[in-house]
From TrEMBL:
<comment type="similarity">
    <text>Belongs to the RlpA family.</text>
</comment>
<dbReference type="Pfam" id="PF05036">
    <property type="entry name" value="SPOR"/>
</dbReference>
<keyword id="KW-1003">Cell membrane</keyword>
<dbReference type="InterPro" id="IPR036908">
    <property type="entry name" value="RlpA-like_sf"/>
</dbReference>
<keyword id="KW-0564">Palmitate</keyword>
<dbReference type="Pfam" id="PF03330">
    <property type="entry name" value="DPBB_1"/>
</dbReference>
<keyword id="KW-0456">Lyase</keyword>
<dbReference type="InterPro" id="IPR007730">
    <property type="entry name" value="SPOR-like_dom"/>
</dbReference>
<comment type="function">
    <text>Lytic transglycosylase with a strong preference for naked glycan strands that lack stem peptides.</text>
</comment>
<dbReference type="InterPro" id="IPR034718">
    <property type="entry name" value="RlpA"/>
</dbReference>
<dbReference type="InterPro" id="IPR036680">
    <property type="entry name" value="SPOR-like_sf"/>
</dbReference>
<keyword id="KW-0449">Lipoprotein</keyword>
<dbReference type="InterPro" id="IPR009009">
    <property type="entry name" value="RlpA-like_DPBB"/>
</dbReference>
<keyword id="KW-0472">Membrane</keyword>
<feature type="domain" description="SPOR">
    <location>
        <begin position="167"/>
        <end position="243"/>
    </location>
</feature>
<keyword id="KW-0961">Cell wall biogenesis/degradation</keyword>
<keyword id="KW-0732">Signal</keyword>
Length: 243
């Protein structure tokens, strides 16, 4: 029986000044025609013309593919999470898992494993699913080869020395009301909104943008109501972010 795959394309617009990304439906980077709906994304970002949907939760996430590693050329530089990259710590870059997620990485070629913290974005290379730190790659025995087939098992966030799967309906939620490449523009917009509307606003650098976020509120339900309230006030919004 023939299978028909209906391709739905993302609408991803970043206008000049105070406008943010607009996303209707985000195509997955995985093979097989899998799509993420806007409601499944905590937020989105674009690299090289491709739009990536950051998941609201890491719960139940398992992935098999190829890992690479990055080291000296990035040591000391800031990661997408805001942390400074240290090639001697057990960290990694992933395209769609929430920042702060801990992942067990198993080298399927030799059976070795390591637990890493996702604190960066990438790898933006076809066929790669995770970019490991030098230390993590060394534990997996893949430094010399450079690339290895691995299995990823998301463990969740680390709380009191244990791993807790994310519950995306509860937490600290913000509504994005602007996104800027320029830091000064982001803060200028923040203070103008605070003065005019009297709401709490913060600026967070995330995936290449200074994002202007209104909030927080502490449940997804309240975040949706808050987003509607902002729009009624005339404040343009794009999507809800859980931090």
């Amino acid at each position: 029986m023939k299978r028909f795959i209906v391709f739905l394309f993302a609408v991803f617009l970043i206008s000049c000044g105070t406008r943010s990304e607009r996303v209707v439906i985000i195509p997955s980077t995985q093979k097989g025609g899998v799509f993420y709906r806007k409601s499944e994304c905590s937020y989105t970002y674009s690299v090289g013309g491709k739009v990536y949907c950051v998941r609201k939760s890491s719960y139940g996430y398992v992935e098999v593919g190829y890992a690479s590693w990055y080291g000296p050329g990035f040591h000391g530089k800031r990661t997408a999470s805001g942390e400074i990259y240290n090639m001697y710590k057990l960290t990694a870059a992933h395209k769609t898992l929430p920042l702060g997620t801990y992942v067990k990485v198993i080298n399927l070629e030799n059976g070795k494993s390591v637990i890493v913290k996702i604190n960066d974005r990438g790898p933006f290379v076809e066929g790669r699913i995770i970019d490991l730190s030098y230390a993590a790659a060394k534990k997996l025995g893949m430094l010399k080869k450079g690339v290895a087939k691995v299995k990823l098992i998301a463990l969740g966030r680390k709380v009191d020395h244990r791993y807790v799967a994310s519950e995306y309906r509860k937490g600290r939620f913000y509504v994005q009301i602007g996104a800027f490449r320029n830091k000064l523009n982001a803060y200028s917009f923040k203070y103008s909104v605070m003065r005019r509307y009297g709401i709490k606003v913060r600026v967070v650098y995330m995936d290449g943008y200074y994002r202007v976020l209104a909030g927080p509120v502490f449940s997804l339900k309240d975040a949706k109501r808050f987003k509607e309230k902002l729009e009624k006030k005339g404040i343009e919004t794009s999507f809800i972010i859980r931090l």
